[in-house]
């Protein structure tokens, strides 16, 4: 399993020595039925990047090899000193790359041992807006449809996502369904992507205007009388208030820069059974939650909720869903409300820690935690399987904040963040790790080790347990830790919740390979959410799904005379996350910026031999330039997998989800020799 599709792979260890020798699709796996993608196989058998094989500790200006006892001793000493001053003096940043067991263990240490509110995971940087929208609309997290619904839909609307690149196995199912008789694929994306190339209709809104476009489509549905009134009356609330909040379709379409006939085409296609997928192009916005709510509203208003239809957010990381269910990040395990007294008492009892140690708040979010580090309010930070220096907006600011803290980096590969570390703890990766993960349709699958990690690297859960036991002796048995015993503790905590996995055991997974929650007993498995034998039941106070009323506002950083272009970012098919596993050692440090030929012509004086400098209000970055008709004039596209891209991006966050606005900011181009620092030096006033 390499991404959140959750494909089942068969792995074989090397005949001699370490490493994974072979990976193939598991034909009997209920998720993917043998499907694979080249990237998933390649990154498991032959990952690029530099593996970490021994603990490192900073001596002066360099990181030097050390032993585990020394590294853990230094980490524990600094943590104890910081916690003694205040639990809020420690930050922990986790990841959707951990197993369920490791994520649960990390939450247990962060919340129950440290007692810190400053704990989050990089899933907040990609899925928080979708999660918030689900809670607001349905009273619970996770998309209603499953993969079983994909072939049953007639219309597939892909909004702000490129699954042909990011989720190729899932995309095959989607594309096959769209190509069938009566099938249709509509793509909404400012940029022409591999997915958009297959579309029957490609709608290109201006970057940052997705909410305006979604409301334009919704207004057209209402104005044309295409509302499913029977469904709305029986199963929803707030429809009249939503209608009152709508602009007229023509005005909203103009705001998004989309012709009205394109809006009408999307609205008309929703008359057939439709799955509406969305990704980071929607979520990573200051209006991410509002836009996700608007897409859910489209499904509710047109009756596209039920088997073969519905809203389906596309998750990136392999265990983003598991992190949300298991890690005690935004909720306690099983999506138990964080501040509810009974839940807190249950956690303190199971973990055998004082109730008063558990933080009162789930925390301010990933970006605000970094702000706390920058202000000096947090002295120690521990990152686990995440690379914030590359993955967060305004990366230069993030790097300085981490440089100024005592930073512990736990990872399998050398990353941009490691350069700021004071202690490095080398971790195992796929094929070297035991545990379970959850995919985006809620299936729990086992992951197994077929080889030992290289050198003295250890599994994440064993590292977490070693740190936790040094602060609170006995909080874990081991290390080494038995993942099954941790999973049993976790699943019992979810019993009776909206994300109940209590009926999933290791024995059941060995037999069934993957099981979808909710699974409250050994014989049941979850299907379409909120729907059972023709009856609807939502986790809201009224039991009905809720419409929303948000309206589009201006983008957080509009273009102007000084910064006349818009920067947006996306994925490459040959790269993964921030690129630490897929980056060739000889790969150019300069990312390649795609621009429309007209943009290149308009900015010709800022180019030199195919290179330019992109400047935002935060930084300037040298790039290579590639012409692309698929990028609209006035827009610059950069890949997310190069750390330089996020030196430019904007850290303003969605006020409801705390997810940053990574997909839109204002930039300018300058000749390569004229970086910001050089121009400032050249224009500085010399003393007389």
From TrEMBL:
It comes from the Archaea. One of its GO terms (cellular component) is membrane. One of its GO terms (molecular function) is oxidoreductase activity. Residues 51-469 form the Molybdopterin oxidoreductase domain. Residues 565-666 form the Molybdopterin dinucleotide-binding domain. SUPFAM superfamilies: ADC-like, Formate dehydrogenase/DMSO reductase, domains 1-3. Keywords: Iron, Iron-sulfur, Metal-binding. Residues 20-44 are annotated as: Disordered. This is Nitrate reductase catalytic subunit. It comes from Halogeometricum pallidum JCM 14848.
